[in-house]
Design brief:
Rossmann fold; 12 strands; alpha/beta
Length: 321
């Protein structure tokens, strides 16, 4: 457990530091309130802090107030070290955001007991944050591939389109469907099919830029968002992902199989009157065209292009994705 000591007294600081290190704490030291606040505002700040009430630059009380105003997580447990013993002073310290106090000169046993209480509170909050993060993960991520789920990727699309309107920039939208995926399930079983989905997701992610987004749209379909990509760059990005996915070496039950996908892309451009549903529909039309023209390929359709009029031969079965 990390703990911060902030005290302008060298003697008091060294005594506290030696005591806390003996108890197994990882100690960080500050000489005044300004330095203490700077340390406590860092990303990996100590979870516990012992602040002297009276310090140059900024009092321990003011450090408490500033820190609580930020409402940062994870929580910092603050123990005020003070020579004040009047009830009014102690109430003022608690109202400023301190969790507990100890009077100078401190009793080691009393300090240890109060720090144990602080440690329990900090540990409990860490467990609650972990549980909250797990629930958030379940609500927003696909449990199998760990990509964004359908509702989450659609929320990302809505945000990207709003940003595109503000910044007058393009957004590429790509629909992906694994080719002949049913035959993988039929030949190798559904567990193997699940493994193929996960590997396909991993390969496409490896070919994406850090600020692109991908989600499992349904079954073996994926929706990919490409911020800042116009028609040409959307096609190029989709082609790069297609090549990455089609690389050999996917092993199932000791057998090496080739897995490919068809990509349908479109782009929302500045000045066009597009909708979220319309973009997905146009990307899906382009995906259908890629299937029609032989699979394992990228097809791009402009958003304002005419709807496709592809007529299947009535003697043949409809296209199987």
């Amino acid at each position: 457990m990390q703990i911060l000591i902030a005290d302008d007294s060298i003697v008091s600081r060294h005594l506290l530091e030696a005591t806390l290190r003996k108890w197994g704490y990882d100690v960080t030291v500050a000489c005044d309130g300004v330095e203490a606040l700077e340390i406590l505002q860092q990303e990996h700040a100590p979870a516990l802090a012992i602040l002297d009430w009276m310090m140059p630059g900024m009092t321990g009380l003011e450090v408490c107030r500033r820190l609580r105003q930020r409402s940062r997580e994870p929580y910092t447990y603050i123990l005020l070290l003070t020579s004040k013993s009047q009830k009014e002073d102690l109430i003022e310290g608690m109202e400023a955001g301190a969790d507990d106090y100890i009077t100078k000169p401190f009793d080691q046993h009393e300090l240890q007991v109060r720090l144990r209480a602080g440690t329990r509170l900090v540990d409990l909050q860490a467990e609650l944050l972990s549980a909250r993060e797990a629930l958030r993960e379940q609500a927003t991520k696909d449990s199998m591939t760990h990509l964004w789920n359908r509702s989450s990727i659609l929320e990302h699309l809505a945000r990207e389109l709003s940003r595109a309107v503000r910044e007058k920039g393009p957004v590429g939208v790509v629909m992906v469907d694994l080719d002949h995926f049913k035959s993988v399930n039929d030949t190798y079983g559904h567990l193997a099919g699940d493994a193929v989905l996960c590997e396909a997701a991993r390969r496409m992610q490896n070919a994406m830029r850090p600020y692109d987004s991908i989600g499992r749209y349904g079954g073996e379909e994926f929706l990919i968002l490409l911020p800042g990509c116009d028609e040409q760059t959307s096609f190029s990005q989709a082609e790069r992902m297609r090549k990455q996915l089609a690389q050999p070496g996917m092993s199932l039950n000791g057998s090496s199989i080739s897995v490919t996908a068809s990509f349908g892309a479109t782009s929302a451009l500045a000045g066009q009157s597009w909708t979220q549903e319309g973009l997905i529909r146009k990307a899906d039309e382009a995906l259908y065209l890629a299937k029609k023209l032989g699979r394992n390929r990228v097809e791009f359709l402009s958003y304002d292009s005419e709807p496709m009029m592809l007529v299947d031969n009535p003697k043949t079965e409809p296209i199987a994705r």
